[in-house]
């Protein structure tokens, strides 16, 4: 704790350990006495556990809708997917030490239940996942992914993150405002105000999360601001006000708001349709090896893997590594390890019918936004998925089918905004220009790869204008004199 005065007084040093008088204790700053007390240690431990629990559900706003649609439309076994994604979560929680998310491969999922073509079969979806995983594994094993990570300009990466974050936020607003049909991927009639999945419920959940988490500032940020204020001259009234504000923020931040909102959604599933209890079957789903024909490989690779590969490289590896460096500078993960991780997950799970998965920057932002600060967040999520997969198997899809979509929209909204805010570190108009061009093309063209390509071109052209050509003139003069 910083010292307030340079003179040698009892306020500047701990009390004499030999003295137990009340006077000496009163000279010791109250904040320091609280920090060193067993009660404070216990409070910090409990707060951390609840924060990790809250962060564990931070990426379910994207996970549940995609998994639900694949289970209903394409008949992917939800029980198998829950078990394998649980194992992925537990493994990555131990290996990376940060809330590294496990999310569906979105382009494959979009193609799988798209109405513009025949729906993909389970073997074709698995073939697409295996093809994408093979490419990412090779890029990681040969360290080419690390080369791409170091060469790609930061404004272009920020543009991809901004576009993905805004895309999540736009989808979230549609979830809140309109009824959703995940089978067709379209919005329906406006959501009613009063119902078990009404607009009023979604707005109440949004206000509750906003009150408890604010703009998403870390508790350590508030502690730092409080400690810095101790260096400035202030009267007792100002000091008391700052302590009061800091205490209130700590209490509000300790509330696992996302977890409470998610548990409310689960309770409402049974309130909306009590008959789902009868449809639940206990026991895990049988795990079988998926038989993939040559035709399945061709269809899966051409229709689903080709659009997924660039998105996985950009959002599942490059953007995730950049975001982890921003959020956890002391625990930065490498592009090689993330790329190999995505590859190995699917090279194992897809053979058994588990949904193709990746690490998404949006999921990382969402789990961080709701309190996830370590691998414990995804470890707890993995344990929850494992229990559900082993106990309910594929029948759990009946519960997810009744989950309030407005609540999912609220969770997705905060995740998207957190991801988009990663782009706030652009320090010049030039960097912001490149980032916004990349984001705009990505959003309007519905393709992160297209936005990435345009961002690279714009970045090179901007740099070309400012390049120093004096070496060319010097070379020409030398040849002329010769």
TrEMBL record:
**Would the keyword Transmembrane helix be found if you checked this record's keyword annotation?**
yes
GO MF, one example? molybdate ion transmembrane transporter activity
Q: What keyword terms does UniProt attach to this protein? A: Membrane, Transmembrane, Transmembrane helix
UniProt-recorded name of the protein: Molybdate transporter 2
Source taxon at top rank: Eukaryota
Membrane-spanning segments? 78-100, 120-139, 151-173, 193-211, 251-271, 344-366, 378-397, 403-421, 433-462
State if Transmembrane helix is listed as a keyword.
Answer: yes
> Which InterPro entries does the protein's record reference?
MOT1/MOT2
């Amino acid at each position: 704790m910083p010292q307030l005065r340079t003179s040698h007084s009892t306020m500047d040093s701990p009390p004499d350990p030999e003295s137990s008088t009340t006077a000496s204790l009163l000279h010791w700053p109250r904040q320091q006495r609280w920090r060193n007390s067993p009660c404070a240690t216990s409070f910090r431990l409990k707060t951390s556990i609840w924060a990790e629990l809250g962060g564990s559900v931070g990426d379910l706003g994207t996970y549940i809708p995609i998994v639900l649609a694949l289970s209903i439309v394409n008949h992917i076994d939800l029980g198998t997917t829950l078990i394998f994604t649980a194992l992925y979560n537990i493994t990555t929680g131990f290996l990376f030490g940060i809330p590294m998310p496990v999310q569906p491969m979105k382009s494959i999922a979009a193609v799988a239940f798209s109405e513009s073509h025949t729906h993909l079969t389970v073997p074709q979806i698995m073939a697409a996942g295996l093809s994408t995983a093979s490419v990412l594994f090779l890029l990681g094993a040969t360290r080419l992914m690390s080369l791409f990570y170091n060469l790609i300009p930061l404004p272009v990466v920020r543009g991809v993150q901004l576009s993905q974050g805004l895309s999540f936020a736009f989808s979230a607003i549609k979830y809140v405002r309109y009824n959703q049909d995940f089978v067709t991927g379209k919005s329906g009639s406006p959501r009613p105000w009063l119902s078990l999945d009404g607009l009023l419920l979604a707005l109440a959940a949004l206000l509750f999360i906003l009150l408890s988490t604010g703009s998403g500032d870390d508790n350590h940020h508030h502690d730092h601001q409080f400690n810095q204020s101790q260096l400035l001259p202030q009267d007792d009234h100002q000091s008391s006000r700052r302590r009061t504000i800091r205490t209130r923020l700590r209490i509000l931040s300790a509330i696992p708001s996302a977890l409470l909102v998610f548990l409310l959604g689960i309770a409402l599933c049974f309130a909306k349709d009590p008959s789902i209890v009868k449809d639940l079957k206990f026991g895990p789903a049988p795990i079988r090896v998926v038989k993939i024909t040559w035709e399945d490989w061709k269809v899966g690779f051409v229709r689903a893997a080709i659009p997924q590969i660039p998105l996985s490289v950009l959002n599942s590896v490059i953007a995730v590594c950049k975001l982890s460096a921003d959020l956890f500078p002391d625990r930065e993960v490498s592009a090689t390890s993330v790329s190999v991780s995505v590859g190995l997950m699917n090279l194992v799970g897809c053979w058994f019918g588990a949904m193709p998965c990746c690490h998404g920057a949006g999921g990382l932002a969402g789990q961080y936004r709701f309190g996830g600060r370590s691998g414990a967040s995804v470890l707890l999520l993995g344990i929850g998925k494992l229990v559900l997969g082993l106990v309910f198997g594929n029948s759990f899809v009946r519960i997810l089918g009744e989950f309030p979509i407005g609540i999912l929209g609220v969770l997705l909204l905060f995740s998207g905004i957190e991801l988009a805010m990663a782009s706030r570190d652009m320090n010049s108009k030039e960097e912001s220009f490149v980032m916004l061009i990349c984001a705009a093309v990505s959003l309007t063209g519905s393709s992160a790869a297209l936005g990435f390509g345009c961002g690279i071109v714009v970045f090179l052209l901007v740099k070309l204008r400012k390049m120093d050509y004096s070496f060319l003139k010097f070379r020409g003069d030398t040849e002329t004199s010769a």
